[in-house]
Amino acid sequence: MGFVAQANRLVADGGLEVMDRDFARLVSVTNLPVDSMTEGIARVDLHRPSPIQLTKTHGVEVSVLVPSPNGTDAFVARTRQDGAGEIGVLTESLWWHWLKQFETNADNARLLSNLVCAPLTGESASRR
Questions:
Q1: 74 near 66, Cβ under 8 Å?
Q2: Tens digits of per-residue pLDDT, 66-118?
Q3: Residue 70 domain-assigned (yes or no)
Q4: What stretches of 1-128 show up as alpha helix (H) in DSSP?
Q5: Could you tell me if 49 and 23 are in contact, meaning their C-beta atoms sit under 8 angstroms apart?
Q6: Residue 48 and residue 34: Cα distance in Å, rounded?
Q7: How many domains is the chain built from?
Q8: Contact 39, 53 (CB under 8 A)
Q9: Which domain holds residue 23?
Q10: Is 123 part of a structural domain of the chain?
Q11: Contact 72, 57 (CB under 8 A)
Q12: C-alpha of 17 from chain center
């Protein structure tokens, strides 16, 4: 079973579906929504990202963190289920190369850090 099929097994109940195709070779996204995960991020550059489609699932909160230019899909999304936790999905091809490839013009490293280590908020952030 391929990577996309495995990813979809993890997120199917969370209202997300990763499409098994590239959106474009290179994509720059600057219209990021206001969210704790996108705070301080002005631009995300991606190489061959796969679109994430949002599906309708009752009782699930889905957040688009990096929208696609077409306005209907996402390249980074988060899903939360009561009592089941949270899953972040990044559909970047070769993410380890992605950080170095776009390190000077984009905020990719900060986005990945926010996804892996949720940003501190409130009092804990003021102690940094």
A1: yes
A2: 999 888 899 999 988 777 778 888 888 777 777 777 777 788 888 888 888 87
A3: yes
A4: 3-11, 95-101, 108-116, 122-126
A5: yes
A6: 24
A7: 1
A8: no
A9: 3-117
A10: no
A11: no
A12: 12
